Fold Stage 0 sporulation protein A homolog.
Amino acid sequence: MRIAICEDEEFIQNSIEKNVEKCLEITGMAGKCECFVSAEELLEKGNMPYALYILDVEMKKLSGLELAEHIRTEDRNAVIIFMTNHSEMMQKAFDVQAFQYLVKPIDSDTAHNVIMRALRIIREKRNYIRFTNKLKDMIFYYDEVECIESRRRKIIVHTEKRDYEFYGSLSQIEEDIKGSMFVRVHNSYLVNLEKLREVERESVTLRSGLKVPITRTYK
């Protein structure tokens, strides 16, 4: 899991990073913090999304709220925590579905409790699959994906809106998401059972209208 901390004050940035690392250790979750001193630096990296964003609201050029608006255009599921000097600004946080906000000076115990709750929500409800395409990570939450197809050496992720191509192994993906609602119905397909519209003898139809074959082995 990747976590982004965007804060231009070094002391606060270091304090939050240590708090996150402690929370990850307590929960037993694997994660890595990446720190940024401005919204522009985070956006320039061009390697989003992260599972958790901890953002300073009052930054020099692009504010934390403006950054969050951009994040929401790319990822509606990420958990966002704001840090601010002015709690009255947080009414605007509802527009970007913020999880919580921390008022500066930040109390370490309060931050710890908020981060712990955020990590637990991510662990329990934010199941996702990560793929890499030309050095860019892309995250797909389970509820976005209809099915995953293997075609020669490529993996095609079918969503209701569009398809995405990557290189990879369908068997490895199946192992990575074991215990989820994805099941193998064909040597070349994993389907999300929550996206089924019709089940026939030799195929299933998904919500988008896509038909996927079923083979005897997996019937």
